[in-house]
Amino acid sequence: MAVHGLFAVYKPGGVGWPRVRDAVETRLLAGLNSLKQRPPRQHVRFLPGVVEGEAGKELTLVPTYLPVLADHLLVKGPRFTRLKVGAGHRLDVKSSGVFVLGVGQGCRMLTDMYNAHFTKDYTVRGLFGKATDDFSDTGKLIEKTTFDHINREMLEKILAVIQGSNHKALGRYANIDLKTQEAYELAVKGLLRPMQKSPPLITAIRCLEFAPPEFQLEIRCLHETQQYLRKIVHEIGLELKSAAVCTQVRRTRDGFFTLDKALLRTHWDLENIQKAIQDSRLTVKTELEKSLGYLERTAYDELIEMDQVEESDASR
Amino acid sequence: MWLAAQLCGQLCSGSEGWWRGGGALHVAAAVGLPVPVVMAAACKTSPCHHGTMPKAVQPAAGWQRQCGGGWVAHSHPCYHSTPCGGHGCHHIATMWLAAQLWARLHSGSAGRFCTQQTSQVSGSGCCIRALPAPSHHPLPLVLPLSALEEISEEEAVQIVAEPLLPFESFTLRDYVDRSETLTKLVHLGVDLSKVEKLRNAGQLLLRLDFENDIKKILLFLKDVGVEDNQLGPFLTKNPYIFTEDLEALETRVAYLKSKKFGKEAIARMVSRAPFLLMFSVERLDNRLGFFQKELGLSVQKTRDLVSRLPRLLTGSLEPVKENLAVCRIELGFRPNEIQHIALKIPKILTANKKKLTETFDYVHNVMGIPHHILTNFPQVFNSSLLKIKERHMFLTFLGRAQYDPRQPSYISVDKLVSVPSEVFCTEIARASVQDFMKFLKTL
Fold it and tell me: Count of alpha carbons within 13 Å of B366, Cβ hemisphere only?
C-alpha cells in the first residue's frame, strides 16, 4: 500500500517543527525498509565443473543459476533513503498542537490546504501580573503589575471588542459586499473568509476559564502566527490596566484536522500513519473540494465559455 | 601489421594464467587473420585494475612501441592508458577480434567466421574477461612458450566470456558479483553499502585477497573472542583493520591482558569498540591513565568503567573533559558523586552537554529533586527530557508527584523514567493509558 496523503501529528512544545518532520520521516523510512523486500534477481553463471562424459570425466562450464549478489541487502543498502514529507501550517518552537504533514503525493494537497485559507482553533493560556519582552512566560521580565481589579466581565468585554473589530476587517478582506445574497450564502455555509493574503484575522474569541491570575482563551482565527496570539494576550493585559504573559499556545484544530485525529509522539510509525492517512482521505477530498469549489467553479466557467467560443468558431 | 600484433599483445596480456599467447593466436589464425609476426606480450597490469582508478601501466615488451608508435598496455579492449598511434581504429579491431573469439567459443566451428561479421557483433564488446586476480602483487612476467601452440578443448573451455567490469565506480555493487573477497565479506555480514561510504575503504577491500590478507585477521579476531555474528558489524565499522600489522594487533591485545582485563572483557571491548585495536599501546596507556586520573578512580574501577563503555577509549577525550567540568561546575556535583554517577552510567561522559544541563535543570529546579537522590538514580540523565516532562506533568496533574523517599506514596526517579508507558500508567500513575494519551494532547 502506498503512503500518500495528509495526516496530523501532535507537536509537543519545545521542539521545532523541522525536528518533528524529520522524526516522522525517519520512522516512516524505518518502517518501509523493514517491510518484505523484492527477492534478488537470478542470473546464470558459467562455472567450471566436472561432468561425466563419454571419455570419463570432462572439464566443462556448467551453467548455474545464482542470485545476483549486487541485490543483496548488505550490498545495495536500504531500499528507501529519503521520503518527501511536507509540513502544513507551521507551529513555532514554543507552541504545541495539531500539525499537518503530507507524505509523497500528499504534499500537493498541502498547497491546496494553504489556498483554501481554513480557519484554525487555538487554546491560549495567559497569566496576569507580568509582562515580558517576547510576550511568553520564559522571556525577559519587563514589568510586574497588580491584577486584583480584573473580573470576568471586564475580560469578556475586551474580548467582544476584539471580535467586533476583527469581524469588520474580515468583511473588508473577504472582498465581497456583505449586503448581497452571495455573501449571505457564503456566510451560512461558513465559507466567508478572505481568499488571498491578509493580516491575521480573529473570527471568534471566547474565555474558557478565568481563575486569576490565570485565564484561558479559545481563539478561532486565520492567517495568524503563534507570536501574534501571544501579542493578543499581552494587549488584553494592557487593556485591562494590567499586564499579561502567554504561557501556552496550543492548536486544537487546523482546517478539518481535529485534536483527536492527531497522532501522538509514540504513534509516529508506518502502521499508524497509514491508518491515519486512510481514515482522513475522504474528509480531505470532500473538504478541499468544498472549500476550493467556488475558486474552481470560476475557472471551470471560464473553460466552458472558451469551449463554446471555439465551437461557434468551428461551426462558422 | 602493428595492429594485429597489438591485438595479440592485448589478448595475451595480464590475467590469471590461462590466457595463453598461443590461445589468442590460435583464434586469430582460425578466423583467418593475417598474422605476420607472432608476438605475445604479457603486460604488467596494475593491481587495482578491476576496481578503480586506472593507473598508467607500462608495457612489458618493448616491441610494442616500435611497431605501433604507441602502446596499449591494458587488457581491456575499450581502455587505453597511453595514447596510441592507431587512435580509434584498433579499438574497433579489438572488439572485432573479441567478437570472433566469443563466436568461436560458443559455436565450436572456426572456419565459419569471416570479417563481414564484424559489424554485427562489434557493438557488444563484452566478450573478454580481462580481469586479473585480485591480488596485491603485480603479476609475474610470464612469457608464453610458443604463440603457435594450439590450445586444447579443456583450456578453451576455461576461457570465460563475461561482461567487462567498470574501471571506476562509486559503489562496490558493480564488483561484488565477480570479486571473491567481496562475496565472502558479504556472506560474513559486512554491510558493503556502509563500508563504501568510508574514506578509501572500498578501494582497500577491492585490493585485498581473501586468503592472503583477510583470513589471518579474521582468525585473529576469533582468537580475541569476537563472536561470529559480531564479525560483520565489526568489519563494517572498521574495515581498516586489514591494513594493520598482525604483530602490532597482538601486542595491543597482550597489553590489555597485562592490564588485567579478562578474556571476556577484551572480547566485549573489541567487538563494541572496533577501533580499539587500531590504537597504539602508548595511546591506549595514555587514555586509561586519563580516565583514572580525571575521575580519581582505582585501577579496578577504571577497568570496570572502560569495559562497560569501551567507546570511551576510542572516542575523543575533549568532550569527556567538558562533561566532567559541566557536572562539577554547572550542575554542582561533588567529585565523589561524579565518580559514582560515571560508574553507574558511563554514557554521561559522552552525552551531549546541552541535553545534560537541560535535563538537570528540569529535574532539579522544576521537579525539585536534590543532588543526593540524583546521585543514587542517575538513569534520569539517560532518558529523554520530553518523556520526563510528560510523566512528571501527568503525575502533578493527578497529585502524585512525590519524589521524597521519606514521605508516603513515594515514586522513585529511576522507575519514573525507565518503565514503558503502559507500566507507568498502571503501576505508577494508576490511570488508564487512554487518559494519559488524552492528557498528553493538552500539553
Answer: 14
Predicted confidence at residue B99, as pLDDT, reads 41
Mutate which: A33, A42, A65, A75, vs B, most B CBs within 10 A: A75
In a domain, B64, yes or no: yes
Nearest to A23 by CA among A267, A296, A224: A267
Distances (CA, A) of B65 to A14, B82, B84: 73, 11, 9
Q: In chain A, what residues touch B174 (CB-CB under 8 Å)?
A: 70
CB B84 within 8 A of CB B64: no
Both B395 and B367 in one domain: the answer is: no
Amino acid at B79: Y
The verdict on B403 and B353 lying in the same domain is no
CB-based burial, B388-417: b 16+ in 10 Å, e otherwise: bbbbbbbbeeeeebebeeeeeeebebeebb
pLDDT of residue A126: 94
Domain containing A49 equals 42-76
My answer on whether A212 and A157 are in the same domain is yes
CATH number for the domain harbouring residue A147: 3.30.2350.10
**B437 shares a domain with B325:** no
How many structural domains comprise chain A? 3
Specify the residue for cell string 561510504.
B197
Model pLDDT, residue A267: 92
Percent of chain A with pLDDT over 90: 55
Ranges of residues in chain B whose predicted pLDDT is under 70: 1-147, 157-161
pLDDT in tens, B302-335: 999 999 999 999 999 999 999 999 999 999 999 9
B158 contacts chain A (CB < 8 A): yes
The answer, for A226 touching chain B at a CB cutoff of 8 Å, is no
A234 and A179, same structural domain?
A: yes
SS3 of B275, please?
A: coil
Q: Are residues A27 and A49 in the same domain?
A: no
Mutate to test the interface with A, among B131, B186, B394, B423 (most CBs of A within 10 A): B186
ipTM above 0.90, yes or no: no
Low-confidence ranges of chain A (pLDDT < 70): 1, 53-55, 294-316
Q: Are residues A269 and A185 in the same domain?
A: no
Which residues form the domain of B129?
A: 2-145
The residue of chain B nearest to residue A46, with distances taken between CA atoms, is: B160
B49 found inside a domain: yes
pLDDT at A1: 57
Task: Tally Cβ neighbours within 10 Å of residue A95.
Answer: 25
